[in-house]
Amino acid sequence: MRAGAFLAAGTFASVMTIAASGIAAAEPATDITVDGTYLVNVDIKPGTYIGDGTPDPAAGGCFWRRLWKIQTPQDYPDPNYYIIASDFVRSKPVVVEIKATDVGFSTVNCGAWHLQPAQPNTGSAG
């Protein structure tokens, strides 16, 4: 019983030290410079991104995916099951709207992506 009490006290002290240290979580990025899979609202901000496009068309095109879940080894084995939207393009630039409700965004061979400023709402439907 005593070991459990010490363990609980140590865990509580560690949590309090981290909470009181003033270390804030990093803001999500507005630029994506490396191929990979990114968590929306954690690694990157949602919004409209413009990609530089395929740096080397001979190596293939740009492939991006918006994801509703990041696949793990225990999940359904088909990676296409987790895609909300995707595209394979060779043209430049590449534009994608990453929504706040997306869980992840994956990019391969697209070059750098840059978040565009939000367009002001004019109140017009057209």
Largest sheet: 4 strands, antiparallel
Q: Count of helices?
A: 1
Catalogue the unreliable spans: 1-22
Topology as a string of helices (H) and strands (E): HEEEEEEEE
Order of adjacent strands in the largest pleated sheet: 1-8-3-6
Give the overall average pLDDT.
Answer: 82
Helix content: 10-25%
> Radius of gyration from the CA trace?
20 Å
Query: What is the end-to-end distance?
Result: 69 Å
The outline comes out as globular
| Count of beta strands | 8
Q: What percentage of amino acids are in beta strands?
A: 25-35%
Brief rundown of the structure:
It is built from 1 helix and 8 strands; from the N terminus they run αββββββββ. It has 126 residues and is of the alpha+beta class.
